[in-house]
Amino acid sequence: MLSLNGSWRFRLSPTAAGSGEEFVGEDFDDSGWDAMPVPSHWVLEEFTPLAGGPPRSMRGTAEGPLYTNTAYPIPLDAPRVSTENPTGDYRLVFDVPADWESAVLRFQGVDSCAKVWLNGVELGWSMGSRLPFEFDAAVVPGPNLLAVRVHRWSAGTYLEDQDMWWLPGIFRDVELIERRAGAIDDHFVHADFDARTGMGALRVDATAEAIVEVPELGIRMPAGETARVPVEPWSADAPRLYSGTLTSAGEVVQLAIGFRRVEIRDGVFEVNGRPLTFRGVNRHEHHPDTGRTLSRATMIEDIVLMKRANIDAVRTSHYPPHPEFLRLCDEYGLWVVVECDLETHGFIYDGWATNPPDDPAWREAILDRMRRTVERDKNRPSVVIWSLGNESGTGEAFAELERWTRERDPSRPVLYERDPSYRNSDFYSLMYPSLELLEQIGRGEEPAPEGIDETDEARRRGLPFLLIEYAHAMGNGPGSLQDYWAIMDAHPRLCGGFVWEWIDHGFSARTAEGVPFIMHGDDVEYEPRGGRFSLHGLVFSDRTPTPGLVELAKAYAPISIRVGAEVEIANARHSADTSDLAFRWAVELDGRVAESGTLAVEPVPAGASLTVPLPFDLSASPHAVLTVEAALAADGSWAPAGHVVAWGQAVAEPVRASTSPASTAPASTAPASAVSAPGETARAPAGTDIAIGAAVFDATTGRMRRLGALELDGPWLDLHRAPTENDHGQGDLNDIASVWRKTGLDRLQHRTDSVEAGADRLRVTGRTAPTSHPHGVEWQMLWLADGDGVVLETTVDFVGPWADTPYMHRDIWVPRLGLLFSLPGGYDAARWWGRGPGETYVDSCEGSRRGVFHRTIDELQVDYPVPQENGNHIETRWLELSGSWVPNLRVEGRPEFDFTARRWTSFDLQRAAKPHELVDTGRVWLNIDHRQQGLGSASVGPALPERYRVPRERTTWSVRLSSV
Question: Is 343 a catalytic residue?
C-alpha cells in the first residue's frame, strides 16, 4: 500500500465550478496554489480566501468552520444546494513502482462530496463523508496525477446534520493499494462462541480461494470451512485476540480474531451468555487544531483516558469513526455501537414533511451508507450493535436498512431510537429520560408511546432498553450520575447507557491581541449558529479531563467497595475476575497516612461478591479516614501498575463542637454607654466599631471588619451564583438562569435593620432582596465570642412570593444559600477537610474522596471555556486559608459547610464570555455556604431533581471563624 497523505496543491473557489476543468491536466500550472496537508479540513488550515490576499486562517468567518447545531447552513431545499458553494480543488503528483500490476485508490473520508480524476481520466464521485470509497485506478509506472474536486455542500449534506462542526475537505487517509492477480477483494470473519461448552466456531469467507491459518489454535483450513476449537472469548474487560492469516495467490491478509456471541434472550442483552451493561460515552471525532482529522496517537489517548475512567463502551456518534479507532477498540477492549453516517435532524424546520428516509427517491443513497458501514467494520469483534442512524425521524427507509443489515450480518442486533414503534430496532431506546421514567422503564411500567398499534407495543415491551444519550455533559456537570446507575444496576432490562458526550468541540483560536481562547459556535460570524452547544464533553477540547469525568469514573467503577463493619467487594465486570487487581488500604489522620497495608482478597468472579474483615478500627480516631482501593497489580496496555480502578471509604465521626461560646470576653464599643449589661443587648450607635471577642464589627452595617490581625469585610447573605450551562436549560425549557435574571437574583440589595451588641454577642438583622420584586430573605446573624474566634449562627426566612409570583407566575429556585466574605488578595492557598481535591456539588460528589486536601486559590478554579459557577466544595468540616503576608483564616463547620474561594466575584463570572476576561480584583472572595443547588443536566435533559435544590424554608446554620 502506498500512502498518498502529505502536502497537496489546493485552490478554493466560490462555486461548484471550482477552478475550471483544466486543473485535471498534467500540464496545468498549480505553482500559485496553496499547499494543503492531506488529510485535513481546509477550513482549519491557512489558505487563500475567496476575496484573495495572502493565505491565512479563516476561523471565525463564514469561510471557516461553521457550527449550526440542528439547523442546516444552506436553504432547506433537498436535494439541491445553493450556487454559492465553496469548492476546493486538490492536485497531487505521486510515483508508482514499476512492478505494480493494478491498483485501487481508496479515500477513507471526504466531506461532503468528491469527484476524482487520475491522469486526466474521471474515475467517479462519492458522497458519504465519514465512509470510505474506492476506485479501480489505472496507474502507470512513474509519475501520476491525482485531481480531486471537493464541494462543501451537496445532496449528501442533507443526510449529515449531526450536531457538529461543518468541516469540508479530504480529512482522512488517501491510499493506493496494489492489487495482484488472485488478491482478496473482501473477507468476512465469523467467530462464534458457545459459553456453555467454551467452544469457538470460526469460518472466514473470502472472494478468492484462500487458506485460513490460526497457529495458536492449530487451525489451517480453506476459506469458507468451519473449525470448532476451545477458545477464550473476547470481551471489553478481557479483549482476547487470536492472530491469523488469510492467504491467497495474490496476497496475505492479517486477521485479528475475537470469538464472541451477541444475543438478546428474554428481553436481556447478552454477550457470551452473560448480561451486558454498557458503561458508555458518545464519541465524536474532534481535535482543537485538526477537527475530525485524528492521529493514531490521539485515538489511543482517547481510549486510554476512557479505560482509566472505567468507560467500557463507545457509541460512534453519529457516523463510523476512522477504521483504526475500531481496530484499537479490539485491542484495548471497548464495546462499540457503530452508527451509520445518517442524520436529518434539520428537517424539523419543515415538520419532517420532506424527510429523506420517508422519500423513496432517497432510498438507495441511504442504503448505500448502511452497506458501506457494515462492509467496512463487519470483522471487528468490538462492534456488537449496528445503529441505523440518529435523529432522522421515521420512514420506510429504516425497514430497508434493517432488512439488508440482518441479511448481511445476522450476528449483531440493530438499533434505531427515533421511531416510537421500534419495529426496526432490537432495543427500546430513549434520550435523556428523567430518573423517574428510567425507573418505570426498568420495571416495565413505562407509559406506551402515542400512536403505536398493539402488535408493535407488545413487541416493544419485550425489548431490552438502551439509554443511547443521557447526562448531557455541557459545562459544569452532569449531575445525578450515581442516581442513574443505582437504577441501571437494579433492573436487568436496562443494558446501560452512553453519556453525551466524550469531548468538547472547541477550536484553538486567538484574539486580535494574541490571547488564546477556545472558539465555539457563537464566535463565528455566520447565521444560523449553534452557540455553545459544541461544548458538551467529559474532556475539554484539549482532552484535559473535566470534574465530570472524575464523577463518571466512580459511577462506572466495575468493582464496588463498601466499607462498613466489614469490607464488601462486588465484581460487576462482564467477564473478568479480580485476579488482575491488588487490594490495599490506608488510614489518614489530618492528611497524613498513619497506617496502611494490603487486603488478602481471593479472586472474585464476574458477578460475584465477598466480604473481608475491616483492617482498622475507626471508632477511636475522630476525623480518621479509611480508604480501600482496588488497583492494577501489573502494567496493562492502558494503565500502569497501581492505577486505581475502584475505591471505597469509611470516615470516623468527628467530636461535635459545643454550640455555646467557650469564653465570654466582653464586647467593647465606643462610646462606652453603648455596652449593655451581661445578657442584655442594645442598639449600637452609628459610626462606631463593636468588638466581640477577637472580632471587630461595623456598628452601622453589622459586617465584620477585623478578626484578630486579619482585616476583612463581610459577610453578606449570598443567594447568587454565575449560571452554569445546565442552569440555562434547553431553549425555554428548564431555563432557571433566565428566571434568576428576570427576578433579580443577580442584583440583590442588602439592608441592615438592627445591630444589637451584648456582653459576649452581637445580633444583626436585615433583609436581602432583588430590585423591582417583592420576594426576599429576612436574616439574623448572631455572633458569639469563642476564645480566639467567633461563632456565627445564621437564620434565614424566605419572605414574599418565591413560587407562583404575581407577575408571570414564576417559580424562583435558589441557586445558593450562604455567606460572602471579601478577604485580602494575599491569600494564595487553601487546606481543608472535606470532599476533594476537585470541585463537588450535592449531586456530583461521589467521585471525590473525603479527607484533607491542599490547593492554591488558583488551582481551585476550573477553567471552563465559558465562565460559569465552579470550584465548590461540599461536606467541608474545616477550611484554612493562608498566604505569605496575611494571617491564617480558619473556618469550622457546625458540622459542615460548602466553600468556594476565587479572585473574582460570581458576578464577574457571570459577565465574562471567555476565561481571559476574568481579572484578579485584588481580593479573595470566599463563600461559606449552607448549601448550593446541584448541577443536573438540563442543558439537554430533565429538570434538576427536587432533592438537589435549596429548600425555601426557615434555615439555621453555624460556623466558627478564627484567625492566627
Answer: no
